[in-house]
Amino acid sequence: ANRIKPSKMIKSCTVALADVNLSKNRYRDVIPFDENRVVLDPCKDYRPAAQGYINASFISASSSEECSHFIATQGPLPHTYEDFWEMVLQYRCPAIVMITRLVDNYMPIDRV
Question: Residue limits of the Tyrosine-protein phosphatase domain (predicted)?
């Protein structure tokens, strides 16, 4: 298996590793690469240095017949709930699929 060298990963994840964005990452070793990260419109983030950061990546999966596009993201943290929903709205995500156990209740059942 090919492994990414840590030095290359650090260079490729500069936005995620910027001081202003570190608190937006649930885990320090699960971060998006700069080249395929989701970028939020700047109007929501009052800190230009944050560069529209959310811990999320675009993923393309193609078969012989079609190409599908997805966004993979971490479960939002309490201080990133707004960023999460902004991303869902900005990119018009038609579905949200959670593939981990429920840790934080960022989508209260009583409001659905």
Answer: 1-112
The candidate with the shortest Cα–Cα distance to 51, out of 78, 77, 24, 30, is: 24
Q: What is the CATH number of the domain that holds 72?
A: 3.90.190.10
pLDDT in tens, 37-80: 999 987 655 666 678 999 999 998 877 777 788 999 998 998 99
Place of tokens 């699960």: 30
Whole-number Å distance between alpha carbons of 19 and 35: 19
What's the structural domain count of the chain?
1
Residue carrying the six token digits 């707004």: 82
> Which helix (H) or strand (E) element contains residue 8?
helix 6-12
Instruction: Indicate whether 30 belongs to any domain.
Output: yes
In a domain, 104, yes or no: yes
Q: Is residue 1 part of a domain?
A: no
Rounded CA gap, 22 and 28, in Å? 8
